[in-house]
Amino acid sequence: MRKQFALPAVIAVSVLVSAQFSIVAQEKEKPAPQKIAIRAGRLIDGKSEAPIANALILIEGDHILSVATGGSAPAGVPIIDLSKATVLPGLVDAHTHLLLNGDITAEDYDVQLLKQSIPYRAILSARNARIALEHGFTSMRDLETEGAMYADVDIKTAIANGEVPGPRMQVATRAMTPTGMYPLLGYSWELQVPKGVQYVDGVDGARKAVREQVMYGADWIKYYSDRRYHFESDGVLHSMVNFTDDEAKAIVDEAHRLGKKVAAHAIGSDGIAAALRAGVDTVEHGDGLTDALIDEIAKKGVFWVPTITVGAYVAPGRGGNWTRMVDLEKAAFQKALKKNVKIALGTDAGGFDWKEINQAREFEYYVNYGMTPMQAIRSGTAVPGELLGWSDKMGTLEAGKWADLVAVSGDPLKDITELQRVKFVMKAGAVYKNELQ
Ligand SMILES: [Zn+2]
Hints:
This protein has 13 helices and 18 strands. α7 runs parallel beside α8 and α11 crosses α12 (373-379). It is an alpha/beta fold.
């Protein structure tokens, strides 16, 4: 017995030794991370109140080494000259659907789920990720695949491995409603049609669904708090709440127990109130926020992701209450701004066609609705950085953070639509677009 043990032990030691040697050898062969400098004519670092003129950003590998006013790059370090441009942190969209390509009508939606395979939709999502990155979005939270199962985990992995260009991703996978409360609906009961979400029922079912989604790669859990939005005589936008309080609390509790955060789709006041009772981390859309709910969302420090671009886009095609909802959300936005609600920029891209609308239009709405351009920029950089839990890595341009930055020709503090014309994109120190040289 002893002899039999001895031999594998010797082999094991030799394997260990050779493995150690090979690691040392690899480290010796690996070139030092490349340094590169950027000369910014005007720098909005995402932190300072005013822009910094003539700034020098020194980058090593994927992160920022230093940010200084004036000065020159160390000898031998190449410089990217953006001296005629404004440089700012990479943009962040906290609410997207890479696996969707516009759904103004129910038919638009059904056709994608019924006639496109998940592999085909995944190929389109890679195209959408590239479009987003070229528009300056270096990070995104993708809030469910709309029937494409866990394909968002795959696109996230392909981007992280450098196989396809795209933003850094956090993903929510399938999302949840109770049985029968999300499309595809209205088909013969004899047909097994795909579902846009995972149907989840009961407290035990909720906990199991959270565990399952986390097992397959969900960074966030998303659930639909409400549906059927309608105005009542009190002038408030009401809705039907999907989950019982016990079910919603089980979703949130299980997700938090597993170290994941929860996003709730909540449009009507009843759905928003239910989501806040359940203890969610972010409220999506939130058109029906009343004064009392605005106070509560502010007090709890819950993020609000307004997605105004999609609301304004789908309203004419959907008719009904949707136009009135856009006006209602504008009023809520102005009140929330006064009460310092944490507003994180999110567009619902995918709810509109990625090829048709630039996500950065959302910044323009925020300024039109009352934010200063600097507030709008922070709502699309540092604030969603905090939402993603990556405040120590992104959202501002300073030493130690990821080298995720964009540049525009003009001054976005004077004209916020400049952000819809991003000319330079760097993510993790790599240049993906440069139309300035
Ligand atoms: Zn959405």
